[in-house]
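Fig. S4 source data, part A: sequence.
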Amino acid sequence: MHKFLPKFSEKNLINGKKQLSSVLPLPKRFVLGFLRNFGLEDRAYYEFNDDEKNIIKRLFAYHFAPAGTFGFERAEVTKGGVKTIFLDENLECKSVKGLYFIGEVLDITGMLGGYNLHFAFASAIKVASALKNS
């Protein structure tokens, strides 16, 4: 079982002036849809009455179990690839000089939100710099 907000405390909301959808570490569209489902407007937590706060607190206690995946064809990220223990700090293969690996070919996985794309570019820059200096 998983929770939507396993590491986020309701205490983080109490004195905040920002709208709920901007404070909760969930996708904004999800929070807006959740609020809309209960006929609530997006506003600061302190502006909700006690009954409305009890509805919002469901997000903190809501347990869910993923029913499955959409498979490899719709995957956002996959695991596997060249293990970094076989590479030096410049991403060069330790056993085959001149062989470098970058981006998603490596066994490195980041969160959704551009992290994997950022790593692909950052690792390319790292290897380009190593090649330029060799």
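Fig. S4 source data, part B ends here. The first strand starts at residue 2 and ends at 3.
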